Amino acid sequence: MMFDDFQFSSILVSTIRNAPVLMFAAMAGLFAERSGVVDLALEGKMLAAAFVSAAVAYATQNPWFGILAGVGISAAIALLQGFVSITQKGNQLVAGIALNIALSGLTFVLAQFFFMQGGRTPDLGSARLFDIVLPGSDAVAGIPFLGWFYTKLIGGHSALVYLAFALIPLVHWILYHTRFGLRLRAVGENPHAADAAGINVERTRFMAMLCAGVLCSFSGAYLSIVQSGFFLRDMSAGNGYLALTALVFGNWRPLQTALGCLMFGFFAALQVQIEGVVFPGLGKVPGSLIQMIPYVVTVVVLAGLMAKSVAPKAIGVPFVKSR
Questions:
Q1: Cα separation of 50 and 213, whole Å?
Q2: What is the SS3 assignment for 285?
Q3: Is the distance from CB of 29 to CB of 214 less than 8 angstroms?
C-alpha cells in the first residue's frame, strides 16, 4: 500500500472501535483506585470475562448470556481480590499480579479442556454481538462526509461501544454528584477521617471493587464477542496495563481518562493502518517498529505525566481501624 492510500477516516473509525476495551477497564480501575485499592488485576479480570463470555455465548448461541456470565465471573474475582486486599490487608500489588498470572494460565487450560482447539474457543459466528444500524442510515449513506460520519463514525457499532461512551458522563455523575461517590473519594483520600465520620471504609471499598469487576467484564466481553469472535490465550495483550496508564494520564478523572483511552486507541489504529505503507523517501517501515508505537507512547506518557499526576492519598495502603 502506498502512502497516497493512507486513509485518516479509517483510523478514526478504528479508534472508536478500539477505545471501549480500554474505557471499560479504565473506568473499572477508576472506581477501585479512587477507593484506595490498586487494581493491577484488570488484565486478569478481562481475560476471565473474555473466556467465560465466549464460552457461554457459544454454548447458548446468545451473546447477551455470554456477557452476563462474564459479569458474574469478573465480579467474583473482584470480590476475591477485595477479600485479600481489604479484609486480609494483603499486599495489593502482589495480589493483582498473582491473579493476572493465575488467570492467564487457567483460562488457557479451561479452553483447552472444554474445546480442544489449542487453548481457544470455536468461532462464535452468529453468537457475536451485532452492529447497530442507526435510523436513516440508508438515506444519508451517499452524502459526502455526512454519510461516513453518520453511518460509520457514529453508527455501525455494537451496543457495548455506545455503553462505553455513555459511561463517561455516568461515572462523572456518580463520582462527583452522589453520596456513594463522595464516600468513595473520602475513603481513598483519608480513610481514618472517613471512618471517624461514620463511613464504613471496608464496605465502601468492596462496593468499589464490585463496580470495578462489573465494568471490567464488559472489556473482556468486547474482546471476545465483538472484536475477535472467539477467545484466544492472553488476548487482552496488555490492555489492562494500558488502562492503568490512561488513569495516570487522566489524573484519576473520568473525562480525562476517557481521552487517554481514545489516545491509545488512536495509536493502536495508526499502527494497523501504517503497517505495509510505503513512505516517500523512507520505504516500508519494519513491522516490529510499528508494533512498538502504543508501548512507546505509554512510556512517554508515563515519563511526562507521573510527576504531575496526583493519585488518591491512601491508594495501596490497607486500612487498619483505629481503636
A1: 13
A2: coil
A3: no
Q: Are 315 and 184 in contact (CB under 8 A)?
A: no
**What value does the CA radius of gyration of the chain take, rounded to a whole number of Å?**
21
Q: Which residues of 210-219 are buried (b: 16+ CB within 10 A; e: fewer)?
A: bbbbbbbbbb
Residue 163 contacts residue 184 (beta carbons within 8 Å): no
Among all chains, which residue has been given the C-alpha cell 490512561?
Answer: 246
Domain boundaries, the chain: 9-121+146-234
Q: CB within 8 A of 304, min separation 6: which ones?
A: none
Residue 131 pLDDT level (bands cut at 50, 70, 90): confident
Q: Which of 69, 18, 11, 10 is nearest to 239 (CA)?
A: 18
Q: How confident is the model at residue 4 (pLDDT cuts 50, 70, 90)?
A: very low
Look at residue 132 and give its three-state secondary structure.
strand
Beta strand pairing status for 157-158 and 283-284?
unpaired
Angle subtended at Cα 225 by Cα 29 and Cα 252, rounded to the nearest 5 degrees? 15
Beta pairing partners, 284:
278
Distance, in Å, from the CA atom of 173 to the CA atom of 184, rounded to the nearest integer, reads: 13
Task: State the DSSP H helix or E strand holding residue 236, giving kind and residue range, or none if neither.
Answer: none
Residues present in the chain in total: 323
Distant-in-sequence, close-in-space partners of 103: CB < 8 Å, separation ≥ 6: 44, 45, 47, 48, 77
CB 152 within 8 A of CB 132: no
Rounded CA-CA distance 156/143 in Å is 16
Residue-wise burial string across 67-91, b where 16 or more C-beta atoms lie within 10 A, e elsewhere: bbbbbbbbbebbeebbebbbeeeee
Q: DSSP label at 319? A: -
For residue range 32-49, list pLDDT tens digits in order.
999 999 999 999 999 999
